[in-house]
Amino acid sequence: MNGKQFRVKQSSTVDGISVDQFIEENADSIWLHHNELWELIPVEEPISDPAPASGSVTIKHANGIPF
What we know:
It contains two helices and two strands. The model has no long low-confidence stretch (mean pLDDT 79).
């Protein structure tokens, strides 16, 4: 335009993918927490209690409360 140069803005990429997608795929939980990206931290399911062994004995108190 009238012989003047102008800059064309391009989105930032890392290895050909967007920066946001690269962070989601490669960042660990500590880095995400440090940079306050808590919504990207994967949620782990709690480990359930193991099943009681068969033949276990439950002793009940006189009032019927198991202890």
